[in-house]
Amino acid sequence: MAQQINSDSFAEKVLNVPGPVVVDFFATWCGPCKMLAPILEEAESAHPEITFYKLDVDESPDLARDYDVMGVPTLIKFAAGEVAATSVGLVPREELETFLG
Predict the structure, then answer these.
(1) What CATH architecture is 3-100?
(2) How would DSSP label each residue in 34-51?
(3) Tens of pLDDT along 3-58?
(4) For residues 92 and 78, what is the distance between their CA atoms, to the nearest angstrom?
(5) Which residues are catalytic?
(6) How many Å apart are CA 81 and CA 73, to the nearest integer?
């Protein structure tokens, strides 16, 4: 299961790593976020080359603002610390696979 990060650990865990990282911007009160969680867990198992993290937008509103997260769930894929792709809303596994590339 993806480790939860926050504003304090974001740069170290996401921006300062060379490999692909997917951050799930979520909220504890968000129904679609809860529905996406098991889909992300499956993807995490299928893609050991990608690091997955969860980030609570209520605990780190600065990062949600910095990355223009207007709704949750929002997935942002980073490559070498740069935004490579964004997906907003609940997506089926097939669409998630396309996003993960």
Answers:
(1) 3-Layer(aba) Sandwich (3.40)
(2) HHHHHHHHHHHHH-TTSE
(3) 999 999 999 999 999 999 999 999 999 999 999 999 999 999 999 999 999 999 99
(4) 20
(5) 30, 33
(6) 20
